[in-house]
Amino acid sequence: MISHDVVIIGSGLAGMRAALEAADKGADVAIVAKSYPVRAHSVEAQGGIAASLARVEEDNWEDHMFDTVKGADYLADQDAVETLVKQAPEAIIELENLGTLFSRLEDGKINQRPFGGHSNVRSCFTSDKTGHALEHSLFEQVMKAGVDVYDEWFVTRLIVENGTCKGIVAYDMQKGEIEALKAKSIIFCTGGYGRVYGITSNDLQNNGDGISMAMQAGVPLEDMEFVQFHPTGLYPRGTLITEGARGEGGHLLNDEGERFAKKYAPDMMELAPRDILARAIETEIREGRGIDGGDYVHLDLTHLGEEKIKERLPLIRELAIDSAGVDPIEGPIPVRPTAHYSMGGIYIDNNCSTPVDGLFAAGECSCVSVHGANRLGTNSLLECVIFGRKAGETAAEYAKNASMPQLSSKEYIEEERDKMENLMNGEGGEEINELEEELQNTMRDKVYIFRNESDLKSALDKIIEIKERFENVQIKDQSMTFNTAYTGAMELESLINVGWAITKNALARKESRGSHYRTDYDERNDEDWLKHSLTRFENGELNIDYENVTITKYEPKKREY
To answer: Which domains does the chain have, with CATH numbers?
Structure first.
């Protein structure tokens, strides 16, 4: 059986940074990824990574911390936020030394630009391809460090025995074999779950696999009701149009040609936090002020000029031309909100440890709660770097003091093979694509930007129905190698579990906070709801408990922008 000291599931930015740190601490490290590493979703991050470098204007970590806590609608744990923002400047310099080519000012210093919800200019960027630049530079270092990479391995199960994580079960897509792999430490860096919504900025890999596996293994999930909808997804697909486009001076316009953001955020306008702008756009559309009465508005960059667009936003220009037939130099881009980010995820402490011995997590699949109820743009890449490094350090230290677990893999492999065969030979006739579409439509129609009790109850009933019907899924592909019908079924199972958790928690939280907006409880209620939700899968049911928010510096206030 394959074994390593530290095994990292996922090859995005958090996984890469964890691998580098664990290898630097002397551990034998491997990455397991369901695609080639530089195809991880981190490459889709466009606008930048936040740090109080003060290259463009005065800044400090205290301002960065306050902006993050306020943006989170005061649900973020402030001790974790302080760690995030204090270490940010050092992390940027480290990334530069690892080979990242940041965009520069004329004096050669790293350039920075404004971003939504930030009171100071602190987004470090590489044109509009920041995630791509970071992912590639870290992958070079991972290869240099001699980290083993098992790519095109689809992890299907976490092995936990007697409260200790001992390994994983995975489908090697190239060989068409089910494998077990054991390790002293496992780190989940599996990303988010945007595909639970049909219109999303997330790529096809983001199905909440790690979150679902952790849940089924008994690990609590935190704050699953908080889903971020990015204001500017390219119409109609939802492909991301970076907030950097607004940071460079882009305007949001309704059908009347009005910069309507001023009605919702008079001071920050287009640079208000994402939850506020997503609701603003959705409101404009619902009240008939979408373009030509339709379900999108315009993002106008034409006044920025050709030179600036080509220099700072070349990818956005290419996306707009290829996908919408619009050159932003000449005309506005059609946009509407798109499912983008998961503030909630696997419950971890500030050292990235889960309640299960030997299991750690970092990045979007986890919830150390630096984002609370709403993430500020450019803080996600920062979280991946800061807490990816911490996860690698903690997991390597744990592995150093642990022996390789004793694990009999035969029964786990046989169970997974039986599951695959049952899917291939089933007679239920339920189609993966049909169930997935029903789930996505349910989430978009009833668990979206505006929520209410009636819709949430209806959605919960529908998801439970879909969950039951999943037992009758049948796949027609009988091949063993690259069986995408099988992996598609596994991804659908994860999406169902994620949708279930989001919806049940959204129904339970009777207030509006950050990205979670209830039209029937349209005010924030700190007295009853200034707390994190914790969701546990027990005896086939989801049970919800709550935990206090850590407040160290900033008492909750009304959010005004």
So the answer is: 231-338 (3.90.700.10), 410-523+533-548 (1.20.58.100)
